[in-house]
Each structure stands twice: as structure tokens, then as C-alpha cells.
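Forwarding these from the shared drive since the link keeps breaking.
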Amino acid sequence: MKILLVDDDKNLVEVLSQAFAERNYAIDVATDGEQGWVYGSTYTYDLIILDWSLPKLDGISLCRRFRDRGYDTPIILLTSRHGSQNTIRGLDAGADDYICKPFDIEELIARIRALLRRIHWDFLPILRWGELQLDPCHCQVTYQEKSIPLAAKEYRLLELFLRHSKDVLSIEEISESLWSSTEYPAEATVRSHLRHLRQKLKRAGLPGDIIVTIRGQGYCLKLPPSTQKQTESQPYNVSEKKNDKQSQHLAALTSAWEKYRHKSAQQLATLDRAITSLQDGTLSVSDRLSAVVAAHSLAGNLGLFGLFRGSQLAREIEQLLQNDLAQKSEQLLQLQVNLNTLRQELANHQNISRQISRQISKHSPLLLIVDNDSDFAEQLTQEAESQGIRTKIIATPELVKIWLEEQINYDRKPPDAVLLNISFQQSFFQDYLALIAEFYLLVPSIPAIVIADRDRFQDRLQVARHGSSFFLTKPISASQTIAFCQHVLQRSAQGKKILIVDDDVELLRVLPSLLQPWDFKLTTLSDPRQFWDILQAVVPDLLVLDIEMPHLSGIELCKVLRNHPSWYQLPVLFLSVHDDAAISTQVFASGANDFVNKPVIAQRLASRILNLLMRS
């Protein structure tokens, strides 16, 4: 649970912060009413606790502002003002409870529990996943009646998943729920807590990993064993199985949109109020800040659901709000027009399923199947689609070349992988080998998987020499074949984050354009003193280091990585103008995975990066 405490009494804040921490609550503290408004209107809280007497904006006025602006977060007023009239005034302002100072900490905790129980009837009962139980009242976790000791963050992480058992939680949502707004945990930190929780639950005897990773989205709780058995016992037809993974992905994103839609309405209301105040000349600094944050959030989140027009409008609103528009009537008018257009854009997409479905289809990988056996090709297509993979079937290598030329001429995306059904007992198998070589020589190369009608070393050697990624032999089922294709597709470099640290500024300027065909997400850094902050912000899939740099050498940075529990497995590739044995020995002794000499050749560097990513 996350609480906002707005109070300027430092001693009371310290006492309450400690009491809440002991009960595994996350807490943000604001010391005046205006700051409380910025926090409360920007972040999501389960409860807000307000002092009555606050600098800049008193608690009663702040409470009214929250209620007038549509915020329904439970609010408790703390005050030294006794008497029924003051109580009535506080409750009429919108507070859900009213506690007079001095008060007993345990009484406040009990009032919090009672309030949340009243508002969220399912908030405090024991949470269960099969035989795993979490008791929020006593902060205890048990499995088969045996206690599981968890650290505070691990406990709150498990509670978060149990309370949102049907939701997919992103790293950002987890961070926002478990950390205060003054903390900025790196993604690696969040994943580290997840890993520790998973390990402790496994050691406690739970069956497998109960927290599932949803690639590109976040994490969710697996169905408990009893529910899984019920699901498995229910018959379903092939068409249901075919669309199972895609429908799960669509359902997860649609669920995320439903959660975000209410928040987006609040953000639009924040922007509307800010623009009205701006036109009246009464916009305060805190309200402007809240509006900028709201626009920034809309710009970032709408694109996730395929609403790119809305995302662009929100970005323009954010930029306009950051300017001084007091005497600029044209920009003020543009601000209002953008907001109206954005509101209409969201109104047109209340049912987001079709939009999300298009996004999933657009970004799902494409598998080219080269096969003149139409029955087996159709089986492969059905299995691929059930795994969220698009397919294109072409019967012969000659037709593939025509199709590939059309793709290039019309600037269409080529396939992500190629599957070829080859018969080595027919004379034209050489055409298939030539086609494999052609895909291999593309920049970047396209992986090819071969299904052969026999298994001989000479055949495997020929296929390997032409650049094939896998050699499968018949008999093999469609599901087994697509499983290998999935493995190849997951090894793709597309979107992989690469951090390059080198003091050669000119090289850093050129590298992004040189490596552009491989579609890496590159971050370059010329000052190694900023390395640690950038590393934690980017969370790269691979690190490229120069050896000789001012202030800190690449070898020193690599040693630091290898001593850190969150980073010791990160693939590291070194660049250097030196190629003598002594330097090479130092590099690999520091923990490097590979070494490339300068001058950098793009094809060679990309190939070494790909090999490291595949192995890791």
C-alpha cells in the first residue's frame, strides 16, 4: 500500500514513516499544501493523510481541491482542533475520517485498516494462491502452514501480485507501487527483488515459478494449480488453441488500457483546468507542473496502445505548456485546439481492442516458409499463428526471389526468419542452398532454418557453409519445427539495447549510422565517469567498452561489473587499437566476453555483438 502524508511536523513525520515502514507501507511526504497537491495529482496513492494546519494551502482547502477535481482517494485528516464543529467541517470538506492530535499510532493504523476495509471490501482478508497465504493484518506469508520469511520489498511485491492476480504489471507500475516518489529504482533493482522473491518461494516448496514474465509488457501471477487443472480438463477446439497466445496478449493489453483509461480522463481534466487558468491569467506554478506531468504521461502511454496521433498531440501540449504563453494568443489557441482534438481522439477509441490487435499483428514476427508441400505448410502456418508468428508461404526459390525483390523495391520489411523444406534427393536442391546464401548475405542477414529429408554430415556441412542457422531432419512435427523457429526469432537483435562507452567522440557520432541496419537501440557515452548512472538508467543487453579512456579505463569498469550481483552476467565486448597478447590477457582477465580491434568495421562489430547476444 502507498500512502501520501502531508504534514510539516518533522517529528511526527519521522515517527509515522517508521511505523508505516514496519507495516510494509510505502510513503511519500509533502511538507506544505501546494506540494501535497502536486504529489497527489501526479502519483497514485491508496490513502492520503493530511494535517489541517499546513503552509501555503491548509488541509481543508487541499481536501476540497482533491474532491472538486474528481480524486476519490481515501483521505484522513489529522488535527489538533477538537470539537464536533471542526469534525463536521472536515468531513464536509470530503475527508473520510478525522483524528485529533495527540493520537495513538496503533489507533491510526486500525483506523486506516477500517477505512480501507470499508472502501475496498476485499482489502484486508487473507490473500491466497493455492496453499500460499498472505495475511495483511499480521504481515505474514505461509505455504502449507509453514512461514516464509520475506524482506519488506519482497513482501509488498508478493502482496501486489496477489491483489492484482489477473493483471499484467509493468516495471513502472511495480516501481510506482513499492517505492516512494523520491526514489528512482533502476529496472535492474526491481528485477533483482523479483528474482529474490521467486527464489524464496521456490525454496519454500511452491510448484515452479508462480510469477510469469510477459515479454515486452511485465509480469503477472500464474493461475493456481487447482484453476489450471480445471482449465486443462475443459475441452477446446483447434481454432481456440490457434489463437490462444495472441488472445492472451490482446487481453493483457486491453486490461492495461482499461486501467489506464480512468487515469487518462483525470489527466485530460488536469490539462483542461490548467488551460482555463492560463487563459484567465491565474495558473499557479504547481498546477502548471501537474499539467506538464499529465501531458508527458499521456504522450508516453498512448503510443503503447497504438494511439500515435494522440501521443503526438500530448507531446505538443507538453511543449506548449513549458513556454511562457501569457501574451501569446495564437499559442494559447493552439493549446486549446490540441486538447480538444486529443479528447476527441480518445473518445473515438473507447473500445481499444481493434487498435491493439492491429498493433500486435503489425509488430509480430514474419516467418517465410519455402515449401511445395501445401499440407505441411498449412500445419506450420496454424502452429505459427497460435504462437503469435505471421507467415508467408512460397512454393519455390524462384518465386521467393521475385517476392523478395518486391519487398525491397516497395521498402517493405523483409521476413524475420526463413524456413526451407529441402529434398537432397532432387537435383534442384542447389537452388535452395543459393537462396540460403542470399539471405545470409543481406545486411542484416536473415536466419534460415532447414528441414531436410535425410541426415548426412556432408549435407549439414553444405548447409552450414551457405549460412543456415538450424538443420532439422524429418520426421518432425509442425509444433517441433515452430519451436525451433521461435528460438531463432528470439535471438534477433532487433530492439536490443547496446551501451557503447568510448572517449572517441567522432567514433560515437558515426557508429549509430553504421549499425543502423541491425536495428539496435544504441546509447553512446564519451565520459566514463557517468557510466554507472547511465548503465542503471539504460539497463543494456550488451556493453561495448574502449580500453584506454581518461579518468577510468574500460578494464576497471568491467571489473566493477563482474563484482556486482545484478550485472556480473552482462555481455561485455572490448574495442581497442592494441592487439598485443598482454592487452588481450588483461581484457579477458577482467571478465570480457569478446575483443574487437580498431578500426571498427560495422559488419564485423555487428556480427560479434549478435554472437554475444545469442550466447547470452
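-- next protein --
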Amino acid sequence: MLRISATKTVAILLALFFGMYLAVPNLLSSEQREAVSQAAPGWIPGFLVPDQAVVLGLDLQGGSHVLLQVDTAELVRNEATQIRDQVRNLLRETRTPLEGGIRISNRTVELRIPDEAARERMLPRLRDLSEPLADAAFGQPGSSTLTIEEQDDGLIRLTLTEAALAERINRALAQSIEVLRRRIDALGTTEPNIQRQGADRILVQVPGLQDPERLKALLGETAQLEFRFLANPGDTDTVRMPLREAGDEPVDVERRVIVGGEDLIDAQPSFDQQSNQPIVTFRFNVSGAQRFGEATTRNVGRQLAIVLDEAVISAPRVQSPITGGSGQISGDFTVQEVNDLAVLLRSGALPATLTIVEERTVGPGLGADSIYAGTMAAIVGAVLVVVFMIAAYGFFGVMATVALAVNMTMLFGLLSALGATLTLPGIAGIVLTLGMAVDSNVLIYERVREEERIGRSAVQALDTGFSRALGTILDANITTLIAAGILFFLGTGPVRGFAVTLSLGIVTTVFTAFTLTRLMIATWFRVMRPKQLAMN
């Protein structure tokens, strides 16, 4: 075990150098890291450029914490409204006589068809509206989205099933998380934590963001964009909407939507070349550009209503046909409002309204206190470990201390390379790694002592001690790695951060405590040729 080939020695030293090289950015400021990134030649792979440091979590650098809840009542209303519209289209296509109107009650749509023959013709068409839900376990068709109930007096009830409602909520949560992630990433923040919590809630944590009001404004906006025309005098199919400015009177807007936000492919903040006012430029896809061009060609001179979340944010007059598929949104905007509006439009609309149920801001002072407490705990733990190892094993304890320092450096290098977020539980994982790393050295050294006691020579004691301790070290660390893996896959937030730090610490511990320590001892033994081992 003490005979290490030159190839293995070079490989070990290269691994040590690379791990420590990755940790270098943690010693640089953000400006210095950016300068290094810009100065690096383009032919060097990105992972070889030391420009990424460990990211501090919300509890260490402060930031904003917001808990959002999906408005399930609105989801139910929207789904019921879609069912009603589909039923209305079927009635219109089949010219089926209807007694009264179509009523919506919670998640049930009711209609009355008194004519039995017409009802029999209509029922198969209504059943076609029900789609089978996919069985998540086996990928097979599951229950239907609708239950259809028929009564003798001609009343028909179409009810959204519980399974369908749960599926709609899950889909809305997944879409909302993706939209929120795009919005927050556009703010330029680092490593936001966005995750589902419970049945209908989303947790958003943004480290380093000290402007909770701006975050709430971005998260709370549904961002449902529509292009309509202001109503002409005498129009009946209209809806009254408020203007963006609170003091302005509401205006009548045509109910018909020309183009929706789903046809928007880009939106960017800009400045008007003539007035130098902040504006948002937008661009449609081919379908949206065609519809927008046709509508503006037929309505030159009319005011176009740009509607965001049921409020008119701008009402420019169409001076000429807009056929290029692009345009601009102008108004009395500030630069930040234009930036935020562009972010909202680019990110897409939320599938449902999100209500803020909890919010808090962690100040940088509290984060600094957490860093100080965690750092002091790590320093005290490290000092006590070093004192114990040197007192117990003398020079061998010094080598274990060197391996421990390299272990910590490599751990920070791996965390930096992965862009991991370090939280207080992560610091706890680092402190635990300290103890585990020394434990591996203790296993090796005590095994060597036992071999010396039974009369083996120094070289035999070292060789046998390392070889027999390896199995024990691997068993202990693999079982801990399994536990860390379970924590990662079943845990959330800080728990996963602890699991990541602990897992990486296990990898670096096995490498440094066995491989590096063995290389140092083998090198020392070849140079010094001791007759006895210098263990206390």
C-alpha cells in the first residue's frame, strides 16, 4: 500500500491542484472574478476559468422570502367557463334548442334541453368534451375530467371531477414555478430558491435582493396581455376597464381580443428616439403579426387599448397600418417600470392569480451574524480537532491536519464549481465533514498502532494498517452517503443544501484522508527510513 507509482502520484497531485484551483474565486471579490472571466481566452473551457465562488444563501447574505398561494377558486371558475364556452359552441353548431341559459355553479355547468330527441343527439357530443386523465403510475388512461348527469326534466349537469381539478392545480403550479423562475432570473439575482410547498403554495427565496416591494410586484402580476380597441360610441359588446393611472376615469373597451400575450415572442426595454422616454418594444410571432397587421389596417385612426391584467396601460392611436409584427408600448413610465414590464411580458402570463400569504426580508446584518457564528463554530471545531490529533499522534497528527486543510479547500472548490448555495445547514455539513475526515485518520492510525504492538516492523505496520482500514473507512462513508442521498431526494430547501455539502464532504474526505495521507506518509518514509513510527 505504500508503493505508489509515479503515474498515481501525478494523478493525485493534479486532482489536488485542480480542487484547490477551483476554490481560488472564493478569495477574490466579485469585480476581480468578473475581470478574470473577461480576461480569459475564448479557447479555455468555462470550468477552467476561476470565476465562480460559493453562493451564500438567504440566511447568510439576507434577501427576500415570499410564500405564494394559487387562487384555486379562480382556477375552478376558469375551467367552468371554458366548459360553458365549449357547450355554447356545440349548441350553436347543432342548433339545439335550449330552455333558459347556461348556468355555472362552482365547478358545475348546467343547461336544460327540454326536447328529448335533441337531448339524445346532444349527449354524445357533450361526452366528447370529457378527456381521460393519464394514470401517473402506469401511464394508462385514468378517470375522466367530467361527469355528466342527466335528469328527466331535461336538466344536464357537467361537473369537473376532483381528479381533474387536482391535475389542473398541479399543472398551474408547475407553470407558475417556471414563469416565476424566468421573471426572477431576469432580475439578475443569484440562485433563487423556487419550490412547491404543500398542495397549492409556492415558496420563493431570493438571496441578496433587498427590495421586497419590487419582488412582490413581479410575482403578483398575472401579466395577461391583450391588444383590443377602445369602443366606438354606441358599441354594445364592450367591457369597462380602469386605466393605469389611478386618477383617470375607466374607459369602454371592445370585448373582442385582437392578439393575446401568447403570440408575443419578445419584449425589451428601450427609449423612444424622438421623446427619449422609456418604452417597451415588442415582437409577435407570424400568426400574431398577421392578425395585428390586418386589424390595424382596417382601423387606422382608432385608439388601440393595450390591456395588462384587465387594466389599460396604454392607448396609442393607430396612425398607419402596423404590418411588421412589432411595435412599442409607451406611457408615463419610469425606467424601472419599463424594465419590470418587459420582464413580465417576456416571462409569459401566470395560469392563475398568486396571492402572497407570507413575506419577510432577511437583512444583511442578520446574515453577517449568521456567517460569523457559523465561521466561529467551524474555527473552534477545527482548532480542537487539530490539537487533539497532534496531541494523540504527534507528527502523524500534523500530516492529518494538512490533509484536513486540503479537504476543506477541495470541498469549497467543488461547491464553487457546482454553483451550490451555502446556507447555515450547509455550514453544519462542513463542520460535520471535519469530524468525519479526522475519524478516517483515527481509524488508520489506530490500526497502525495495533500492528506495531504485535511486533510488526514500521513498514509492515503502515502497509497493513492502511490496507485493513480502507474497508472500514469505505463502509462508514458509504452508509453516510446513502443517508445524505435520501435527505437530498426527500428533503427541500436547506435540508437539501445540508445533504449536498455532506455528500461532497464525504467524497473529499475519502480522497484526502486515505489517498493524500498515504502519499505524504509514503514520501516521508522513503526519505527518513525510520525504524520506529513517531506516534505518541
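The chain is about 50% helix and 20% strand. Residues 484 and 499 are 5 Å apart (CA to CA).

- D.
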